[in-house]
Amino acid sequence: MDPKAGEPNIRIPPLNLPGSLDVPDGFSAAVLFAHGTGVNSGRCSPRNLHVAAKLREAGYATLLMDLLTEEEKADPANDFDVHRLAERLIQATRFLRSETAVEQKPVGFFGGATGAATALIAAGRAAEHDGIGAVVCRGGRPDLAEAWLDGVAAPTLLIVGSKDATALDLNSDAFSRLHCVKALEVVPGAGRLFEEPGKLDMVSDSARGWFDSHLLKADFLKADNG
Q1: How many CB atoms lie within 10 A of CB 130?
Q2: Angle between helices 115-125 and 82-99 (to 10 degrees)
Q3: Closest C-alpha among 59, 67, 56 to residue 17
Q4: What is the pLDDT of residues 4-46, one digit of tens each?
Q5: What are the residues whose beta carbons fall under 8 Å from the beta carbon of 77, sequence distance 6 or more?
Q6: Which of 116, 129, 184, 194 could form an S-S bond across to 142 if both were Cys, CB 3.0 to 4.6 Å?
Q7: In a 10 Å sphere around its CB, with 0-12 CB exposed, 13-18 middle and 19+ buried, how is residue 98 labelled?
Q8: Which residues pair with residue 161 across a beta bridge?
Q9: 204 contacts 60 by C-beta, under 8 angstroms
């Protein structure tokens, strides 16, 4: 894992939200992380840092950012305001493409906890204008995306632990409502936080495989580049 992974090195407008953007040499695409803000989530979550490090090893730039201000974090209800969080994820995507080395490289989302819904709403909203190439969600609450599930065009992978019965039910329901290229992967023996030995590596490997297969073939980039 990178020694300084997760430490903020950029500010995302318009609220100057802190983010950690890591861009490997010769990177092929970028993945933005969306997450909850509870004690087990956030920009510095060890699970997000682990997956992000594995993606960087595979040649992906990664952005882990706060989606709420410090004042907003004080109210737990804000963690479930997935529409506001999705808007900020879209703003971050546009910032990366206009102000950083990401530019017009393919962009994907990785969502966890309530960030699963955030990523799916943002992908649905961005379908026409921002061209999100692929989405991966680790457990969490994709069901909170509600009607936006119908509009997700990006290939989407939902990953759930077999021991997390509640998330499995919610993800199965969300999966049935998606009309894009999709897959539901159940990690055997994994709980809600994928803390069991080797389980988070399985999540990382699956995310990398999905992004390799779908994000690097984003149709909107082919159209833009003629």
Answers
A1: 16
A2: 60
A3: 67
A4: 556 789 999 999 999 999 999 999 999 999 987 655 566 778 8
A5: none
A6: 116
A7: exposed
A8: 187
A9: no
For the residues of 48-109, what is the DSSP string, one character each? Answer: HHHHHHHHHHTTEEEEEE-SS-HHHHTSGGGGG-HHHHHHHHHHHHHHHHHHSTTTTS-EEE
Residue 172: other Cβ atoms inside 10 A: 14
Angle made by CA atoms 59, 64, 68, in degrees to the nearest 5: 160
Fill in the DSSP letter of residue 111.
E
65, 77 in Cβ contact below 8 A? no
Q: How far, in Å, are 27, 42, 110, 210 from residue 17 at the CA level?
A: 24, 13, 18, 28
Q: Tokens 């994928």 sit at which residue?
A: 194
Cα–Cα distance, 134 to 156 (Å, whole number): 6
User: What is the H or E stretch that residue 159 is in?
Assistant: strand 156-161
Angle (CA) 205 209 213, round 5°? 175
Please give the structure tokens belonging to residue 188: 């055997």
Structure token digits, residue 7: 């430490």
**Cβ contact 61:101 at 8 Å:** yes
